[in-house]
Amino acid sequence: MSKLILSVLIAAMFASSALAADFFPRFKGVAPVKNAKHESECGSCHFAYQPGLLPSRSWRKLMEPKELEDHFGDNAEMEGGERLAILDFLVKHAAETSWYKRATKINRSVPKSQTPLRITETRYIKRKHEEVPRKMIQDNPRVRSLSYCNNCHMRAADGVYDDDTVRIPGFPDW
């Protein structure tokens, strides 16, 4: 009798994981930003990066009051309540909690011992851009750096970073 119960449990476990893939599919890209506070506060100075582009430990570090005081050379301080609301959104939707393929790949590329403060510091992003010559990014005044995702990725705001949607300004044949 116990072998029968064990067999049924094992069969149910395999069936449920197969069904889970149908009900909870992995999506391409990263989840688009759907948070008005994040879009208005962070997006007022730069592209409102999707939380799935970094692990939660990175967002926690980036959103510390001292880090915001000198946020890559700018003062991005914000009121405590607003900062905590944005931090909560970022952490809840960070790379390690995402159902999106690119976010999952980004998360896997960041060793647990590291806390990157820049999306461009992750191994995944570096690897994806290593073939793009410097003249097309850093030396291109219409792009300037990898930090300006939306300058080349036409659907970045939608969380789509496919090669098919890349248009490098000044390099139409890329």
**Average pLDDT figure:** 89
* Termini Cα gap: 65 Å
- Helix and strand content put the structural class at mainly alpha
Rg, please?
20 Å
Which parts are unreliable, with pLDDT below 50 for 5 consecutive residues or more? 15-22
Write down the secondary-structure element order.
HHHHHHH
Approximately how much helix is present in the residues? 25-40%
Largest sheet: none
DSSP strand (E) fraction?
Answer: under 5%
Number of beta strands: 0
Count of separate structural domains: 1
Count of helical regions:
7
The 3D shape can be described as globular
Model description:
By secondary structure, the protein is an all-alpha fold. The protein has one domain (36-165). It has helices at residues 2-23, 36-41, 56-62, 65-69, 80-92, 101-109, 123-129. α3 runs antiparallel to α5 (80-92). Residues 15-22 have low confidence and may be disordered.
Put the structure in a nutshell.
By secondary structure, the protein is an all-alpha fold. Helix content is 40%, strand content 0%. It is built from seven helices and no strands.
Topology overview:
Elements: H1 2-23, H2 36-41, H3 56-62, H4 65-69, H5 80-92, H6 101-109, H7 123-129
List descriptors.
174 residues; mainly alpha; 7 helices; globular
